[in-house]
Design a protein that fits this description.
Strand order of the largest sheet: 3-4-5-6
Number of helices: 1
Strand content: over 45%
Largest sheet: 4 strands, antiparallel
Structural class: mainly beta
Helix content: under 10%
Oligomer: single chain
Number of strands: 26
Distance between the termini: 27 Å
Order of helices and strands: EEEEEEEEEEEEEHEEEEEEEEEEEEE
Shape: globular
């Protein structure tokens, strides 16, 4: 697993080998101020990032609980929530490394995406799965002891809401004010792959299917603001949606027709996007229709 340490304005890149995996694996990665968080097998590991940008080889925090591979996770403040390929959901307090939520069989199939709100906004967890459902859960405000995990498992596995999408759910995400959340699916139904819901009532606010072809699923999404939503996926586009008009206001097309697996909005104008093909990562400027930099091996024409 190679981690890019620096990517400067001139396009110069320095990278480091963090972990060598003997089996095929697609990790999920998140970087905060001084920690790099990575899924490695069934664990979510945190690595210290030094002031000079160098990543320590040994993890400083190891979060475990999943019976199979960890799929995606979300970190906010001192809480990490993760979904597993065995359908489980776990939440940990990073400081104590103790569990705040345990759902060993939260979904019938892999939990592909999770997000959560802080205590002041209800401490909700939203999860999406291959079992074609999105579920809302309430996170505990204090810790569980390991001796109580069987009771915890049975008490946690009662979702507040279950939203049937009739399609595999690939991604979920709360808005910046936690008043709404969006869900992205594989896009094989007539309703389309993108939905926005009210977080308190779980009523659908909007759905977007007119611009998507059959099978053009959403693989990643993120709210820029309460009303601006970025999405990307199989149709090779990054799209910005304005929820005040329910229209797409910006599009960025991947030049080599590759599905866009994930992206990160940086500052006011930047977007970094990772593609399925050739390990390419592109840097976009929202003021331009073409990418400004690329990292990785480009396919031959």
């Amino acid at each position: 697993m190679h981690i890019v340490l620096r990517w400067n304005a001139m396009g110069t890149v320095s990278a480091s080998l963090l972990h060598r995996c003997l089996c095929r694996q697609l990790p999920w990665i998140f970087r905060d101020d001084d920690q790099l968080w990575v899924t490695q097998g069934s664990f979510v590991n945190g690595y210290r990032v030094r002031a000079d940008g160098i990543i320590n080889k040994l993890p400083t925090c190891v979060l475990k609980g999943h019976g199979e591979d960890a799929c995606r996770f979300r970190k906010r403040e001192n809480i990490v929530v993760s979904g597993g390929s065995d359908g489980s959901i776990y939440a940990w307090d990073i400081e104590s490394k103790r569990k705040r939520f345990v759902g060993k069989s939260a979904h019938a199939k892999a939990t592909c995406a999770v997000d959560f709100s802080p205590p002041s906004f209800g401490h909700l967890i939203v999860s999406g799965s291959k079992d074609q459902t999105v579920k809302l859960w309430r996170m505990k405000t204090d810790h569980y002891d390991d001796v109580d995990l069987e009771w915890v498992h049975s008490s946690n596995c009662c979702p507040l809401q279950v939203l049937d999408h009739r399609d595999r759910v690939w991604c979920v995400g709360f808005s910046k004010d936690y008043s709404r959340f969006a869900t992205g699916t594989a896009g094989i139904t007539t309703e389309g792959p993108l939905f926005v819901w009210d977080a308190s009532s779980c009523q659908m606010i909007a759905s977007f299917g007119d611009v998507y072809q059959h099978g053009a699923g959403i693989l990643d999404l993120d709210f820029e603001t309460r009303d601006l939503l970025l999405t990307a996926g199989y149709d090779t586009f990054i799209r910005m949606w304005d929820l005040r008009s329910n229209k797409c206001v910006l599009t960025f097309e991947e030049p080599f027709d590759s599905a866009i697996y994930c992206f990160l909005s940086i500052g006011k104008y930047g977007i970094v996007a990772g593609t399925y093909r050739c390990g390419m990562v592109r840097l976009w400027d929202k003021r331009h229709v073409k990418p400004v930099q690329v990292r990785g091996r480009q396919p031959q024409p």
